[in-house]
Amino acid sequence: VHLVESGGVVVRPGGSLRLTCAASGFDFGDYTMHWVRQAPGKGLEWVSLISWDGSRTDYAASVRGRFIISRDNSKNSLFLQLNSLRSEDAAFYYCAKDISPFQMLSNFDSWGQGTLVTVSS
Amino acid sequence: DIVMTQSPLSLPVTPGESASISCRSSQGLLYTNAYNYVDWYLQKPGQSPQLLIYLASNRASGVPDRFSGSGSGTNFTLKISRVEAEDVGVYYCMQALQTPLTFGQGTRLEIK
User: Min CA distance, A107 vs chain B (Å)?
Assistant: First the structure.
């Protein structure tokens, strides 16, 4: 299993960007996927999930209405669109894979290395 | 939201000794299927988190049997027997019963 995030950049408050998680080594389309973030030196915060077929999504209250999770199973890719960015959104963003196929157990058995989003004017 | 509270927040341990971390949830994590929806993760310095224990007591693949999880309802414990230098890092509990999924504050284990 290999998860590689990309897309983290320096962005101004109010700006937007799209994160990508490229997956390999497993049947991507069978698994619920998540985004988890961590501000530098701080703890972990769950951000969003998307079911294996994309039919269900959910968000933390802090990002609902501003972030959009999506996936392209034909390209083994997970995305997170970040809009209306705030200083408190600055963090490492990790994608994580659920442990069992076709379920939403929310046990993250594989994580990417993370991509850093910096929000600064 | 379910609040997860860990203790202690800092844990100095002598190699070879045992260590325990407590995690308390603001609501019960026992689901109707008889599983407790709590996981334990370790984030080693400079690395991404890794799953240690899922559903309160199930060791993830490749995790040494020195690590064990126990508890039910609102009180959970991660025990590390025979602590080794490679076990240093920050340990997090997380509830997976309902969204938003929530983590504890983290417990930093260091070697004396």
Answer: 6
Interface of A to B at Cβ within 8 Å reads: 34, 36, 43-46, 49, 58, 60-61, 94, 99, 105-109, 111-114
Q: Is B62 exposed, middle or buried (0-12, 13-18, 19+ CB in 10 A)?
A: exposed
B60/A112 CB distance under 8 A? no
Q: Which residues of B touch A108 (CB under 8 A)?
A: 39, 41, 49, 51
Taking chain A (121 residues) in runs of 10, the rounded mean pLDDT of each run is 96 97 97 97 97 97 98 98 98 96 88 97 90
Instruction: Round to whole Å and give the CA distance between A101 and A51.
Output: 10
Classified as helix, coil or strand, A89 is helix
pLDDT score recorded for residue B30: 94
Q: Say if residues B6 and B101 touch (Cβ distance below 8 Å).
A: no
End-to-end CA distance of chain A: 37
Is the backbone of residue A19 left (phi > 0), alpha (psi -120 to 50) or beta?
A: beta
Residue B109 scores a pLDDT above 80: yes
| CA of A94 vs chain B CAs: smallest distance (Å) | 8
Among B49, B61, B100, select the one facing A44 at the smallest CB separation: B49
